[in-house]
Amino acid sequence: MELRYEGKAKRVYRTGDPGVYLCEYKDDATAFNAQKRGTIPHKGEVNCTIAGIIFTYLEQRGIPTHFLRQVSPTQMEVKAVRILPIEVVIRNRTAGSLCQRLGLERGIPIQPPLLEFYYKNDPLGDPLITPDHIALLGLATPSEVEQLATKARQINQHLQDFFRRCDLELIDFKLEFGRDPQGEILLADEISPDTCRLWDLRGSGEQRVLDKDLFRFDLGDPVAGYQEVLQRIRAAYPTASPRP
Prior knowledge:
This protein is α+β, with helices and mostly antiparallel strands. Helix content is 30%, strand content 32%.
């Protein structure tokens, strides 16, 4: 297979079917725009499995995704889409860069949830952008921007329910979308502890963190944190599995 793209967390290959790509999840970990690098053993397997379960869960609730099936512990087949260079972030509590930018205390509930757009551009540091910036750069049409916002808010509602059942609170998360050959906007990339802040409803203080912040800020063992999230999901959804 031809390697089409390699990012910080995944490799994407062309397959014999032009409408299908193979997405391979890596154990590599990066933070602060790749200024911090490392490896989290078994992260690729955990994230691939979690993402497949969540994509299936969302599709059952009417959210179209690029996910087709998981074909190995670290690989899934996905629909061939052209990724929009826009990251959509939903925040349910204050954390991370939002606190740094606005001087807010960490952990304040946000109601209604805050939606932000970021320009997916590593050399520029993935800057925060507005719908007017998106139009200026020609990244998406106004109709598509409205679709992204609507889908992101719907996904947030579904994922809050999903993780609450696992005794986890969804603090914030990042989404990416792509256009299929027919121009439909599909949820793409991944949803995992790499892209979500997840706090343990059974814990307190820094011990509540069960996501990539364990790696970012050396708060604990990221291997154990990621595995705990997967175990919680399997316990809460014993019949759930990525489509074979």
